[in-house]
Amino acid sequence: MEQKRRKGNTNRKTKTNKKASPAVAVLRGVGITFLSIILICIITCTIFATALTIYVMNFADSSSTVLLEDAEMNYATRFFAKNPKYTPGGDEDEWVLYYKIVPTGTTMKWTDFEDIPETLRDAYIYTEDERFYSHEGVDFKRTMASFANMFLHFYDSKQGGSTITQQTIKNITGDSDASGISGINRKIREIFTAIDMEQSYLKDDILECYLNIVPLGDGKYNIIGVQAAANYYFGKDVSELSLAECAALAGMTNSPTANNPSKEENNFKRRDYTLRHMRNNGAITPEEYDEAIKEKLNVTCDIKYTSVDQYDKDEKAINEGITTYFTDEAYKQAINILSENYDVDTDSAKEKLTSGGYNIYLTIDVDMQDKVDKKFKDPKTFQAYNLSQDDLLSAFICLDYQGNVKAVCGGRDEKTVSMGWNIATNSQRSPGSCIKPIASYAPAIDNDVCTWSTLFKDEPIMIDENGDGTKDKKWPVNYSEVGGTSNWSYNYYPTWYMLMRSLNTCPAQLIEQMTPDASYVFLQDKLKMTLSPLDADYSPMTVGGMTKGTYLDELVSAYQIFGNGGKFYDRTYISRITDYSGASVYDHNYAYSQAIAENSAYVVNRMMYEVVNNDNGTGKQAKVNGVEVVGKTGTSQEWQNLQFVGLTPDYVSGVWIGYDDLETIPTNKYNNIAKIWKNIFGDIAKNEENKEFQKPDSVVEAEYCTKSGLLATDKCKNKSKGYYKDSNTPGYCTSCG
User: Fold this and answer.
1) Which of 533, 575, 591, 659 is buried most deeply by CB count within 10 Å?
2) Domains of the chain listed by start with CATH number
3) Overall average pLDDT of the 34-49 stretch
């Protein structure tokens, strides 16, 4: 064993000492190193490919859909009004441009695909994307070439790889970052979005959108789309462009500021590029190429009109510059409509409206608005005599009986800012006795608490002044509409007389019977008035002593029920909205709620007729010869607010006067509030189509006994005419005889 082990050791030693060839050793080392590098590269590439795949697929999962409809951005929104000169069958259009909102420095006009000449379409395709009709959103050949050129510089200039589809997406979204990692991210995101878009839209639709939103400005003006460019550079409609002009527009796309037709040398090179590609692809003949390349272009660079869709000389807005009060309110309403329709926040809706190319059809009566504006500028409208200093504020609003606002004025001073403060819609002021018809008399008549001739004693109710559960105060005092207070007479007067004289005791007694909560709910739910929870109390519901007050537009809207049979319509400045393509976005819903019964409404209407037309009525100075006027005056505590809401057969309107700092209004210096309303609206009322309110069949006109308040008999000596619901007529008088 020992010998064998030694032998074995000897053999091992012999092998160890044997020297290998140097060349073999080197080759062996190089091979091991090379194989190690290959393995490292394979592993690295595998890891990189896996990470890249995950990275790219994350973009595929998170890429958002871009809609061609979003290309509406950057179009002017136009407000239209009914043409006061329009007659059916006449030459005048029914709607005229009232105001337009133009994206700053932007001119564009949408043109349908079939109205864009094929020559221009081909020019863009063979300049920007030769394989447009064969790829599926991404031209991977061009994309890879563009990517390789970034590193290997095959081309002298930067080689673009974006297809028309990708450019359309970039123009819609505004996402054009081309730098660093964020640029790569944007490109990958754009690729997946383009593939998705091509699965959702026809090629022609994508090309139409692209040609309408491609930027073609010269640095001075932001010209968007081929129609605006044709108009600006050549003074033509896009359908009138020659082949050379089509090539000039298509060729400038890669750098509009540098290559637009006004830069003759640069544009000629780009025009030649376009024409050669069109010729090489068979879109034009060699003869057409030769003719077009020789054509001398007549470049105008003249933007005659200031807004989108403004290529007709009669497209001048009635109102320009600073917005009117009416436009302000329509603008705000349109934002709310778009926010709701598209389920977006207010800022997004505002952005859509500002540059979305919407056509907004207003409810305004242009003639009426003009007349009201002129009256507000005339000091005689308000002053009892000429005042050297006059800082009295005022506001006015008029609606028809479907809630359409016809005119609004939010202040007397010259309007110097758009979207400024509007007293008629933004200020809450005490309505005073204007609250009575809607808070007490209307629900009382409707719920048969009283009739036209129910007798009420002119005496106060007892209220809990200290909140200890003890009714220990007589309330309310009667305020005279012309100043001062009056004691309670303790005489009996019929309901209509209490309203005519604006005595506070009757409404207080009605509110006591119905409860302040019931009146509060009626105003808030039926008439959609903005109230504080603290207003569910005696003073607010009886004499208008609100916590904050009421908005004039809401107050006037509430009164519409007395002129249209008890129906309440939502107030609106807009009847319809269409988008840039003419598709309907919004049609105002003229549904109504029946706030009170038709006969109840007419009975209260007749009560307010006495307010204006009775010699003892507080609103007698609002009377207009030739047309019925009914209404109610309102005076807040210490004469800090004066209001009048007047109804004619066609309209309901209201006026407010007061001061910013709630000073007492010197009634000796200013006209009676009913007189001010007449000064503003009287001439308009005279020309109304309808002259009197129509009595419904459900109202009974009958004589009543002034002694008992019941229907008169032959034995009653003192009688007067009254109006009653046919479902709630009083019994016959039995006390006379």
Assistant:
1) 575
2) 105-294 (1.10.3810.10), 701-737 (no CATH)
3) 66
